[in-house]
UniProtKB/TrEMBL annotation:
A GO molecular function held by the record: alpha-1,6-mannosyltransferase activity
One CC-aspect GO term: mannosyltransferase complex
Membrane topology label: Multi-pass membrane protein
Originating organism: Beauveria bassiana (strain ARSEF 2860) (White muscardine disease fungus)
PANTHER family cross-referenced by the UniProt entry: GPI MANNOSYLTRANSFERASE 2
Family statement: Belongs to the PIGV family.
Protein name: GPI mannosyltransferase 2
Length: 465
């Protein structure tokens, strides 16, 4: 096997279920039910702090009288950024497929287009059946994009959980207990309700874990082999889709940079066509990751910065068109959300830094430890390829955490963390190590408490978001 379990009896532990998939399924259903109950029950706390959701759904002809559970769910979970995703999925205000407002480009157009497609399929099905096939028939047509986002979030989160389980089995040589613990930790991720709402976190996690799984499977074959090269390209494509969903997926490009450097180093020592191809394939894989971000930027450029010699179009060109790297994403993050190095470091944001501190600590500490010593994540070293992969994953996780600390709205780190595997492995290793078990248990208690409190706050339009 690629990597052997650090504990020889780990896979035979009585805490490892004879049917881990059933255990994960039941845990997933229980946790999601808990989160949705708290979210819908948040209405008992009082009306939402912000009226954006009610105004957004006000165009529905009978929204005030609709009382189906699906409608309630859609409107309790369409909060904060979810409004942007659902609005864009509706086609903005004129049915177009491109975002209507400049700031909408900060939110994945790819995800909104997919939600638009899902809602269209639901409407097509409803026209065949004669009514909306949802709940009791009273579900509003205007709720479909939101419900599509909720369904996609749940399905993607489930895929992420089961894929992480398979990935952990692959990297640990079949350590069933460690794989089960890591996947269960993914279930109760502090991203919480954001993995149930029309947000990008669940699809990003599913695609990220799937891409890494494909890459890890390819590393079972030697550097330069056709199967490994095919796996690198496939992983690049999947991780490119992840980047199209969330821009922090660009950090996954590090995996391909490391692969390219290793192939180039091997080529220098022993020149050969296979190694040269391997280096080139790794470079292409990295380009595929970057394309997930570059393509939407190019589309935006053609929309806002085109016009040729038209004088009126030239006058209306937004300022970002003249930048050396004309990125609408970086522009709207800068202008509309004031994202930038240390810009969030103001006294009034101290409470949000305190809220983010536990997750930041877990991500940075686990990333540093596993990068320095992969055994800290529960991995015994027998495969150089898998060891390097795990270390690259640890580095990319730490980079994102440091960027969140210095340049992002820091509270988003609790959401971003859901798409990174190393900290799940590290906490699982703590839970299996008597000397560190207290740390693991404290992390689990925090995750459960944070997820529950966050669900109520989110549904009432209160931070953190």
């Amino acid at each position: 096997m690629a990597l052997k379990a650090s504990s020889p009896n780990a896979s035979r532990s009585p805490s490892s279920s004879s049917s881990p998939l059933l255990t994960l399924t039941l845990a997933f259903i229980a946790w999601k039910s808990f989160i949705l109950l708290l979210s819908c029950g948040g209405a008992l706390v009082g009306p939402g702090y912000d009226t954006s959701t009610s105004l957004f759904f006000a165009r529905s002809s009978s929204s005030s009288s609709s009382s189906s559970s699906a409608t309630l769910l859609a409107r309790r979970l369409t909060r904060w950024d979810a409004i942007y995703f659902v609005h864009a999925a509706r086609g903005g205000i004129n049915g177009s497929r491109a975002p209507v407002y400049e700031q909408q480009w900060a939110f994945s157009p790819a995800l909104s287009l997919f939600l638009q497609w899902l809602a269209a399929q639901a409407r097509r099905t409803s026209s065949i059946l004669g009514r909306l096939p949802l709940n009791d028939g009273r579900t509003e047509d205007d709720d479909l994009e939101a419900l599509a986002g909720i369904a996609l979030a749940h399905a993607s989160h489930a895929v992420a959980v089961f894929t992480l389980h398979r990935l952990t089995l692959l990297l640990t040589g079949g350590d069933a207990r460690r794989a089960l613990l890591a996947a269960l930790l993914c279930v109760i991720s502090p991203a919480g309700v954001f993995l149930s709402a029309p947000y990008a976190e669940s699809p990003f996690a599913a695609l990220s874990f799937a891409g890494v799984w494909v890459l890890a499977a390819g590393y079972e074959d030697p550097l330069g082999s056709a199967r490994r090269s095919a796996a690198v390209l496939a992983a690049g494509a999947v991780l490119g889709l992840a980047t199209a969903v969330r821009s922090n997926g660009l950090a996954n490009g590090l995996l391909f940079a490391v692969e390219a450097l290793r192939a180039a180093g091997a080529f220098v020592k022993a020149p050969g066509v296979k190694l040269a191809v391997a280096a080139g394939v790794a470079g292409v894989g990295g380009v595929l990751v970057a394309m997930g971000s570059a393509i939407p930027q190019y589309v935006a450029y053609t929309i806002y910065c085109g016009g040729g010699g038209d004088e009126r179009a030239a006058v209306m060109r937004p300022p970002w068109c003249e930048r050396t790297v004309p990125s609408i994403y970086s522009y709207v993050q800068d202008v509309y959300w004031n994202v930038g190095f240390l810009r969030y470091w103001t006294p009034n944001q101290i409470p949000l830094f305190l809220l983010a501190a536990p997750v930041l600590t877990l991500l940075i500490a686990s990333g540093y430890e596993v990068l320095r010593r992969p055994a800290a994540g529960g991995f015994a070293l027998s495969s150089l390829d898998h060891r390097v992969l795990v270390q690259a994953l640890a580095a990319s996780q730490a980079i994102v955490a440091l960027l969140a600390l210095t340049s992002y709205h820091v509270q988003v780190i609790s959401r971003l963390a859901s798409g990174y595997a190393v900290w799940y492995w590290w906490i699982a290793a703590c839970l299996m190590d008597k000397s560190r078990r207290g740390v693991g248990r404290a992390a689990v208690i925090f995750m459960v408490m944070y997820g529950g409190i966050q669900a109520v706050l989110f549904s009432t339009f209160l931070p953190p978001a």
